[in-house]
Amino acid sequence: MAEDYELIDSGNGRKFERFGRVTLVRPCSQAMWRPDSPENWARATATFDREDGNQWHGRSSLPREWTIETAGIRFKLSGTDFGHLGIFPEQRAQWDWIREHSGGASVLNLFAYSGGSTLAAAQGGAEVCHLDASKGMVQWARDNAALNGLQDRPIRWIVDDVHKFLRREFRRERRYDGIILDPPTFGRGAGGETYKIERDLQETLTLVKGVLSDRPRFVLFSSHTPGLSCMVAENILAQAFPSAKVESGEMLLEGRGRPCPSGIYCRAVW
Questions:
Q1: Would the pLDDT of 142 be above 90?
Q2: Domains of the chain: which residue ranges?
């Protein structure tokens, strides 16, 4: 299996990563230690920081688009104005888990971004519904599906606000065996609706519970929200899904450098 991603080094609030032939330095608030090889960082293709507003340095050296493969999935990458690339590689272990646990299931992926979890579920043999509020991100995910030869798999591509969609699915009596959600700390819906995780997560999970099938397999929650710990996530999911086994952990960026925490995951499993 090809592996085009690695964490090269991290420290002083930044991370040095390789995405195929491109190396980047970007912010990483959890990297509170010192870099192991700071002398190598100047060789990065480009850097991004938020010290004086979002800005790239050396962006002209970046390809407009390029493709990598990681965790058995191919991704189209491109440097965005917010420093994102169209992939969150700390999710790689979750993609492997989804692929293993989605066979024959109906899976809903909410806040689905560029589709890593959607494609992992499709590779595992699931029927998938992919939802994101951004039309551009849904198209990006469809491009990734084509890169992986999954364009003809049973995937529904939806641009909508999560809560509005979940209410409609409940009324339609459409149910899902597995639900994946990675809500933003703050985001905007397709119609300008705002989402704040500390205000809206409980309602999201109530709506999720309403569209679970009679024989659910899993709810997989992940988050990059500062202060939202594994124990907080476990308490929330255990309360929402009392019949499930709940497990959690840190999502990590890994490679040559020290493993770097980058958010948490929590699974409710039946």
A1: yes
A2: 5-77, 89-269
Q: What are the tens digits of pLDDT across the range 193-228?
A: 788 999 999 999 999 999 999 999 999 999 999 889
In this structure, CATH architecture of domain 89-269 = 3-Layer(aba) Sandwich (3.40)
Q: List Cα–Cα distances, 199 to 51, 115, 173, in angstroms.
A: 28, 25, 26
Which DSSP string corresponds to 207-231?
HHHHTB-SS--EEEEEE--TT--HH
Helix segments in the chain, DSSP class H: 92-101, 116-123, 135-147, 162-172, 197-210, 230-240
Q: At what angle do helices 162-172 and 197-210 cross, to 10 degrees?
A: 20
d(CA 106, CA 152): 16
pTM equals 0.95
pLDDT digits (tens, 9 = 90+) for 10-53: 999 999 999 999 999 999 999 999 999 999 999 999 999 988 77
**Crossing angle of helices 135-147 and 116-123, rounded to 10°:** 40
What rounded mean pLDDT belongs to the chain? 95
Closest-CA residue to 76 (of 10, 18, 137, 13): 137
Retrieve residue 65's tokens.
């688009």
Tally: H helices and E strands in the chain? 6, 16
Tell me if the domain spanning 5-77 has CATH number 2.60.40.1180: yes
Q: How far apart are CA 221 and CA 237, in angstroms?
A: 9
- The per-residue pLDDT for 2 is 74
Structure tokens, 93: 């272990």
Task: Supply 238's token pair.
Answer: 């255990």
